[in-house]
Amino acid sequence: MTVASILAVACRRYGFDSDAAEVIRLGENALYRCPGGVVVRIARAGQQASAVREIRVARWLASHGIPAVEALEVDQPLLVEDRPVTFWRELPAHRAGTPVEIAALLRRLHDLPVPRQEGFGMLAPFVRLPERLSASTAVDVGDREWLLDRLAQLTARWEEGLPAGLAEAAVHGDLWSGNLAVDDAGVARLLDLERFSVGPPEWDLVSTAIKHTSFGKLSAEEYGAFVAVYGVDVTGWDGYALLRDIRELRMTSYVIQLASENPVHAREARWRVDCLRGRNGPRPWNWTPCP
Q1: What is the residue-wise DSSP string for 97-109?
Q2: What is the C-alpha to C-alpha distance for residues 54 and 165, in angstroms, rounded to an integer?
């Protein structure tokens, strides 16, 4: 069944108009805008547990006054051909968040009571990496074996435990500028809640830190402003290198997955692997964002 057919089946269930739906994005998930301010999100097959958590998280955030995407009050997620479908209220006109805005919302999020009873689960930094790397056709055998070995090494280091750091908190899991929507009134809302969990707050901080240390996308002044608002510089923590390395591998595996489905991303996938393997010199590296 095509994504468009899944959309039609899901919308028909609740009386939404899929005939006039507009594509927002076709990437890791498929996003459509339907009349009446409804956004339909179609996740990949096998992601039902993640979709259930997203709905639960959205409602928990609302109960604590943290601005985020709003789940519609319908019975969801809906499973169509093993693909979870969720329904959301369309956001007002917005732009991506700045590092300072990310820091401010992370500070609020991490200061909330730890949601140990809500069923969000503990942070799983390697989720889907083995599947993405093992199934890849976008890199050669030698690179794939190296990546899987790298994954095994990082997994072992993670399982040994992190150095002492910040107290466990609710973490977004993937908060970069595109996952923070800031409207014309300055309200910043969290998007993409599928990696929300309980874990080390440093995991959220690393997403912005590597924009400076790994990719040179943030200047020292911009990163300093982020640190000043949040109150912690994660790059000075003994566990930073491990979380940085895991993040870089996750970002590489995502593009490898895209490249296995669409060769337009193959060059970027190979570039990122070459960077990880030391073929393109030391950090910072120039990585091109992918959808």
Answers
A1: PPHHHHHHHHHHH
A2: 27
Q: What is the pTM of this model?
A: 0.92
Say yes or no to pLDDT of 225 above 80: yes
Burial degree of 112 (CB within 10 A; 0-12, 13-18, 19+) = middle
Q: CA nearest 97: which of 211, 197, 196, 248?
A: 211
At residue 154's C-alpha, the angle toward residues 113 and 218, to 5°, is: 70
Of 105, 51, 107, 93, residue with least CA distance to 75 = 51
Cα separation, 107 vs 104, in Å, equals 5
Task: State the DSSP H helix or E strand holding residue 8, giving kind and residue range, or none if neither.
Answer: helix 3-14
Residue type at 127 in one-letter notation: V
- In this structure, whether the domain defined by 99-276 belongs to CATH 3.40.50.1390 is answered with no
Q: According to CATH, what is the number of the domain 3-90?
A: 3.30.200.20
Q: Where are the domains of the chain?
A: 3-90, 99-276
Q: Tell me the three state secondary structure of residue 251.
A: helix
Which tokens hold the place of 271?
Answer: 């570039």
Q: How far is Cα 160 from Cα 149, in angstroms, rounded to an integer?
A: 17
Render pLDDT for 77-132 as a digit per residue (tens, 0 to 9): 999 999 999 999 999 999 999 999 999 999 999 999 999 888 899 999 999 999 99
User: What residues contact residue 243 under an 8 Å CB cut-off, 6+ apart?
Assistant: 125, 200, 202, 203, 206, 234
Pairwise CA distance, residues 56 & 287, whole Å: 34
The string over 156-166, giving b where at least 16 C-beta atoms fall within 10 Å of a residue's C-beta and e elsewhere, is eebeeebeebe
Chain-centre distance of CA 176, in angstroms?
8
Exposure class string for 271-280: b at 16+ Cβ within 10 A, else e: bbbebbeeee
